[in-house]
Specification:
Strand order of the largest sheet: 1-2-3-4-5-6-9-11
Number of strands: 11
Order of helices and strands: EEHEHEHEHHEEEHEEHE
Largest sheet: 8 strands, mixed
Strand content: 15-25%
């Protein structure tokens, strides 16, 4: 199916299902995906495993300049973003200057739109880096992926590239002392000869147990809304998502946001 890449370092603003009026910040190249996951549902398509040349990331200075220019333009037009969101063509925390860019972004945000939030959508794979953890503690919406509590399911859904240990990821998530949002994609289908369904009772019971251990301040649950690189995937219904949300709220008393 057709997927797409974000062709700008600063993009939008767009109306986000989860965050409101969101101005996107893409710390990856504008013509290729760079990620530590190769998720079968990613709207940006498959992650290249081999490259003819090293991917070039936008510099810290370029990101700051482009962000400042965009916010100044929005201010002159009377447009205000709800949130500045680090997303784009892969995993933003892979950028070597991620921590410094977060500091720049907060300072620029405070200058132009101090009421806007700063959000990071991360797949949680770089939480072993202390500077990444400290940077994520500074943002308003620290949104970390956890698609399953079962390692085999994560391997099927997220296809980690390189080293990935769920136990270590959960340990690192607990470093935030609850100041994080867990984001989970619920999906059904088939991939590489395997049935996929992370809404079964086995999956949900294990997932709820991990949430009780992590104690996030919020949980975001959603399903596919755009084209995916793997074709044999189906959405989870709004009814089923609401049932999952109700369990999180009743069993764990955690705020839940649902995006169909």
């Amino acid at each position: 199916m057709s997927t797409f890449l974000f062709d700008q370092t600063i993009f939008g603003p767009v109306k986000s299902r989860r965050l409101g009026v969101s101005l996107g910040i893409n710390l990856l190249p504008n013509n290729t995906k760079v990620c530590s996951f190769d998720c079968i549902y990613c709207e940006c398509g498959w992650t290249p495993h081999k490259r003819e040349k090293k991917a070039e990331l936008p510099s810290r200075e370029i990101v700051a300049r482009l962000l400042r220019e965009k916010l100044e333009k929005m201010g002159n037009a009377g447009e205000a973003p709800d949130v500045l969101t680090f997303a784009g063509n892969g995993e933003p925390t892979l950028h070597p200057d991620f921590a410094e860019i977060i500091d720049d972004t907060i300072a620029i945000r405070d200058e132009y739109f101090p009421k806007a939030r700063v959000a990071v959508l991360s797949n949680s794979t770089m939480l072993h880096r202390p500077n990444v953890v400290e940077a994520l503690k500074k943002v308003d919406d620290n949104i970390l992926k956890l698609d399953s509590a079962i390692p085999e399911t994560i391997q099927l859904l997220d296809c980690p590239l390189g080293r990935f240990h769920l136990v270590e990821v959960i340990k690192n998530m607990k470093k935030f002392d609850g100041k994080l949002t867990i984001q989970t994609m619920f999906i059904r289908g088939e991939f590489s000869g395997h049935k996929i369904d992370n809404t079964t009772e086995e999956e949900l019971s294990a997932w709820l147990k991990l949430l009780a251990n992590i104690r996030p301040e919020r949980v975001m649950i959603y399903t596919i809304a755009r084209d995916t690189p793997s074709q044999n995937l189906t959405k989870v219904s709004a009814v089923d998502l609401d049932k999952i949300a109700a369990r999180v709220h009743s069993e764990l008393d955690i705020d839940v946001q649902v995006s169909g």
